[in-house]
Specification:
Blueprint (H helix, E strand, L loop, with lengths): L5 E7 L5 H10 L4 H5 L7 E8 L2 E8 L3 H9 L1 H4 L5 E7 L6 H18 L4 E7 L9 H14 L8 E5 L5 H13 L6 H11 L4 E8 L4 E6 L5 H20 L4 E7 L5 E11 L2 E10 L5 H12 L2 H12 L1
Parallel strand pairs: 1-3, 1-4, 4-5, 5-6
Antiparallel strand pairs: 2-3, 7-8, 7-11, 9-10, 10-11
């Protein structure tokens, strides 16, 4: 039985950052120079990628008005059959908010009228670090989110803030969108949440060779500086274990506050598919043997992870 090719579309106005996001997802590391040289997408750029052994078609819809008008004039030709939409809004371009929402609404109306089942991830992109605490931009984004909730009766709509300066914000949005196409993916994060209760876990994460997250748990109420530090380590470990072709990597580090943490990242192999399991726990500085013992106990939970992965990919 031939499995239907899943179609993922990136839509939005011109200059919203669609192609930059796709480039960042595809490369993850060292993409900045390539992004700086990108030209506007003409019509629709297509490529394919694999996730969990399944093939996906990725469509990058050029956002210039002449193309948008054509998509909306012939939606059956361009939009029909799409499983997941990443709709990109330039969070900094206040003057085009209305234009962007108008385009999105016309796309949603097509799917509503044809009753096609499509998942929607809306990315407020270019939400760069200097805007995280900006009251004005956050109020504007909140207003847009509230306006779009009227479509929540017809579509599963999720919102994300992303920036090219934080690759994990992009990978998290992409991973969350993909997870909507797999019924059992949520079980991974639920399992991690349960496991964390038995260990003083700061982070438990499972991701594939492309950095797409299958499930993740973060300790609640982590301070922003701590979370950013964990992000740095998370990305560095992805590079190290892949580039050095290792199956296990153990490490120890500390936050600016001086609080230390230890962790390990391990490769789980399923045929020709590789997955990476990452644990980070708070160190017991008075009893380091206790920390080592804790990591050993976490290792014993690996069969649960492997069983769950098998359920997802089968």
């Amino acid at each position: 039985m031939k499995i239907k090719l899943k179609k993922i579309a990136f839509l939005g106005l011109d200059n919203a950052g669609k192609t930059s996001i796709i480039t960042a997802i595809s490369q993850r590391f060292g993409f900045e120079e390539k992004i700086a040289k990108l030209l506007p997408t003409r019509r629709i750029a297509r490529d394919t990628f694999k996730f969990l052994g399944l093939e996906f078609s990725r469509l990058d819809f050029g956002g210039q008005r002449i193309y948008r008008d054509d998509y909306l004039k012939h939606p059956e030709k361009y939009l029909s059959g799409i499983d997941l939409i990443f709709y990109i809004i330039d969070a900094q371009d206040f003057d085009r908010y209305i234009e962007s929402i108008d385009y999105l609404e016309k796309v949603l109306i097509f799917f509503k009228e044809t009753q096609e089942d499509v998942m929607i991830s809306i990315l407020f992109h270019k939400f760069d670090p200097q805007f995280v605490e900006d009251v004005e931009i956050n109020k504007r984004i909140l207003t847009l989110k509230q306006a779009l909730t009227r479509y929540s009766n017809h579509f599963d709509i999720f919102f994300f803030e992303t920036t090219i300066f934080d690759i994990k914000s992009i990978m998290d949005a992409f991973s969350s969108g993909l997870s909507m196409l797999f019924e059992k993916m949520e079980m991974v994060s639920n399992l991690f949440s349960e496991i964390s209760k038995n260990y003083n876990a700061i982070l438990i994460s499972l991701f594939d060779a492309k950095g797409i997250t299958l499930g993740e748990f973060y300790r609640p109420h982590l301070q922003l500086k701590q979370k950013l530090r964990i992000y740095e380590i998370y990305l560095d470990l992805q590079k190290r274990i892949i580039n050095e072709n290792r199956v296990l990597y153990e490490f120890s580090d500390k936050f600016e506050s001086g609080e230390r943490f230890s962790g390990l990242i391990e490769v789980l192999k399923f045929g020709n598919l590789n997955f990476y399991l990452l644990f980070i726990v708070e160190e017991d500085e008075k009893d380091l043997e206790k920390t080592v013992s804790l990591l050993d106990k976490i290792e014993s939970a690996k069969p649960q992870m492997e069983n769950l992965i098998l359920q997802i990919i089968q």
